[in-house]
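Subject: Protein record for review, amino acid sequence with backbone structure tokens
Why sent: The fold of this protein is of interest and is recorded here as tokens.
Enclosed: The protein record, placed directly beneath this head.
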Amino acid sequence: MAVAAREHARSGPRRILLLPHRKTPPVTPAVTRWFACIAALLLWAGLARADSTILLDPTADGKAWLLSADLEPPRTSRLEDAVMKGVSLHFLLEVEVLRPRWYWWDQRIAQFAQRTRLTYHALTREFRVVRDDGPSRSFESFETALAGVAQVRYWRIDPGEQLAPGDYLIQARLRLDSSQLPRPIQVDALTNRDWNPQVEWTRANFTQPPTPTNAR
């Protein structure tokens, strides 16, 4: 734009292009309601994503990270009905470490998974959450138990070899592992979205610092 302006100045007096005036259509109540609905949906989507967070803390040796996350769990009324009837729900926490690339898809450096089981015990009227690598926790309601499933604290993420210094992305999501459902429900889950609600990835940026000279 700056180059074009200088060329204009050399060529002579500046010319102004006049465009025909177009009458702006009136804003009807229907249009106003439409814009209000769109704004409400965008606000709701922003609030929903704001509930999901990822935090990373480096380990003392600098070779791994400790992941803490509050993710958005899959929610449908069918899941609560199933667990109240004695069905165990298995959730899969998926985590991927990516190297951003502007010229192609992000390169996946490492991936991790953690399983969590949610059950209901009618005798004690409590929900229990059990992770692969931790003790069980008890909750009084399905909602609080589901929030407990989606909450991760200080999970060690180790890519296997030390990451090269640079910028990376980490993304995580929590989904229902429908392959662990009883066989009749698995058949229904093939066509029923209530058993496979869509979940989005939650992303965060982090930087791998250079390795200190005395640590080599």
In short: Residues 1 and 48 are 40 Å apart (CA to CA).
